[in-house]
Amino acid sequence: MPVSRKELTIKIKVEPRSSKSGVVGPYGDALKVKLTSPPVEGKANKELIEVLAKAFGIAKKDVEIVSGQSSKNKIVKLRGVPGKAEALLSKLSKSRNA
Length: 98
Prior knowledge:
Layout: E1 7-15, E2 22-27, E3 30-34, H1 43-56, E4 63-67, E5 73-79, H2 82-97
Parallel strand pairs: 1-3
Antiparallel strand pairs: 1-5, 2-3, 4-5
């Protein structure tokens, strides 16, 4: 997961139609995110942007789905989060390995 001073690009594994929405944690070389929305008419993508913005403490406009618009495997770009993102990703990795 490359980190620059201005943005972070991460792989996301989406699980639509879940009972709860939220960032689950590492999933191989990706970050797993559960969504309650179905994968139709962009509903799951819209919810993914909302969930990631909230989790990383950034505006929805700073979350961009770069690829995988119609796939469960996506690449997402987050802007303005390097310090926060590293701390959150580290926390998720530790909780997964505990």
